Task: structure prediction
Amino acid sequence: MSTLFNIIVVIQVLSALVIIALVLLQHGKGADMGAAFGSGASGSLFGATGSSNFMSKSTAVAAAVFFASTLGLVYATNNRTSTVDAGVMGRAVTAPAKPAAPANPNAIPATTVPVTAPAPAAPAPVTDIPK
Result:
């Protein structure tokens, strides 16, 4: 599945580069001043009656390949049967924590000494509430 994914990514990148090149090579609609003097028919694929030239049809084909590869990538990534990705923190490797060595090896650890807290004092009853 990984090989198919890589092939689709390469196709998508290449089709994106082809689209960029074809769009940059085409001239805009405002650049048709030469067509008024009779040179416009030579640039179209099917002569003067054709609705679009070879460059615009090639751009449409490259765009279709780009969209198809995008849908292929969506299908390939949604149908992977790997474990659920827990993100960056889920992939982090944690080492078990070592207990810190006591500063004095003969000292009694603090967890073995019982600590008793005094009982809290009861609040004094309220007898007179000022009005």
